[in-house]
Amino acid sequence: MDAPKRERSLSPPPSKKRKLESTTTKKAVANFFTPASKKEPEKTAWAIINKGLLIARYNPAKEANRPPVKRRKIAAFDLDSTLIQTSSGNVFAKDPTDWRWWHPSIPNVLKQLHADGFTVAVLTNQGSVSLKDNPKTVKADQRSLAAFRSKVSNIFSRFDFPIVLLAACARDLYRKPRTGMWIELVEDMDLDEGDGPDLRSSFFVGDAAGRTARNGAKADHACSDRDFASNVGIEFKTPEEYFLHEEPLPFTRTFEPGTFLDPASTTSTDATPIVIEKRNALDIVLLCGSPGSGKSTFYWTKLKPLGYERINQDILKTCVKVASNLLAEKDSVAIDNTNSDPETRAVWVQLAQEFGVPIRCVHFTASIKLCEHNDTVRALTSGNFNPEKRTILPHSAFAGFAARYREPQLKEGFQDIVTEEFQFQGTDEQRRIWSQYWI
After folding, report:
1. What homologous superfamily is domain 39-254 in, according to CATH?
2. Which fold, 284-434?
3. Which PANTHER family does the entry mention (predicted)?
4. What is the pTM of this model?
5. Minimum mean pLDDT range among 13-22, 62-71, 248-257, 413-422
6. ∠ at Cα 197 (196, 198), nearest 5°?
7. Do 287 and 312 form a contact (C-beta atoms < 8 A)?
8. pLDDT of residue 311 exceeding 90
């Protein structure tokens, strides 16, 4: 059945003056004085997982006593700009009541999906909602959480069938396009064993689809919804495609991990070739590149075996002191910092001159998007990806490097400059994990 075209809200315009009155209903007052044993059970159960994921399970009273049925087909939807939009026309809602359906047909479409045997789920990124215990922002965090819960409860109240919402509220494994929300949903449905969910029949609908500007509409802000569906292995559609039956539009991705996977390269972790030789009995090797460009891996696999001691600290003054002590003891050093600009690099060139030793440069050319991808994989996985147990870096770390970066030149005083281009190397399982969309 073709859904009708999108319509504007039929709500009357707000009056210029509003009479202040209580919003407490007689039913609410009566319910307050009703003994707990006689109160209606709450229709929405809330849970917080790992201080990053908020789960709301809605189960109407008439469904509460029915035995659970395993539903292997999953119909999943993003929330904002997919199921709902603001009534005010603002990008962000003014309050919990500032919403309306993205299209009037949505309640009936979701109800029919439930009748057809689907589990209906909402999977949404909600970065403005905090679930962490931060004493400095506790009041603001509580308000944001309370407002979001109020809006979700209001939305759910329009349904007479079970529905579940998962909201990723931090930069962790739950945030799309990462698959943590899907994994939690599958476990919650008790489908993590046996045949698992029916991926061929399941699908995800979202507006972050990487579409370019079209028909007066702006380009999509991201491609995270499309990438999420790709990571999970289910069909993806935009709201226009699913609810309005429009034809798919062209899209682009700002970063494609697959382009860095050489099919001909080895999958062995112990086959990394040495591309730099120790040319001097005593010298400094300075690494230059963005966070996440592979500098530390380069040191451990290629410089450490050559006898270099690693300098890797945030405070430049401390780094110089440690390096000076090592050089005085006739130990060559590798400076494993970003060293983004000539001014910073000049400090190390001067130190080399003071000790009368050469200084060499290894230039890491990985793009900022690639580096952010590497950093995210490293921080949110375990094992060989993150032996130093680093946490995820803020976006400002990459933007700051890009703003300061100047390509190193021989005229700065380097003996030579070795260019290191990123190429993924790892086991088949590491390759599978790394090749997913993470940012």
Report:
1. HAD superfamily/HAD-like (3.40.50.1000)
2. Rossmann fold (3.40.50)
3. BIFUNCTIONAL POLYNUCLEOTIDE PHOSPHATASE/KINASE, BIFUNCTIONAL POLYNUCLEOTIDE PHOSPHATASE_KINASE
4. 0.83
5. 13-22
6. 120
7. no
8. yes
